[in-house]
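Students often ask why inverse folding is considered easier than folding. One informal answer: many sequences map to the same fold, so there is more than one right answer. In these notes we will look at a single instance of the problem. The structure comes first.
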């Protein structure tokens, strides 16, 4: 690691009173002497709150999944029914309309 940034690491923290969860992105970068390849003289660690970004991304993925599921179900020409042990069956209201 000669002056290169590390891969981001994500950690979750929970507030002890409110129980609100926060997600932090942590990136580190070593500092070397003036040549850039010499002695290690320190480092920089950056912490960034990415809670809202991750929440938005999760919601977007969920919406895309729901839309895909709905589109797939709408494209399938099938009926849904319930059958009792005696053999009586009832077609769903949605299937009966189609």
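Output (designed amino acids):
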């Amino acid at each position: 690691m000669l002056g290169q940034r590390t891969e981001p690491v994500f950690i979750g923290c929970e507030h002890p009173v409110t129980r609100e969860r926060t997600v932090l992105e942590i990136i580190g970068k070593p500092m070397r002497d003036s040549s850039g390849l010499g002695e290690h003289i320190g480092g920089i660690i950056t912490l960034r709150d990415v809670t809202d970004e991750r929440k938005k991304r999760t919601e977007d993925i969920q919406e895309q999944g729901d839309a895909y599921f709905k589109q797939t179900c709408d494209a399938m020409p099938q009926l849904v029914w319930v059958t009792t042990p005696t053999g009586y069956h009832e077609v769903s209201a949605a299937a009966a309309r189609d």
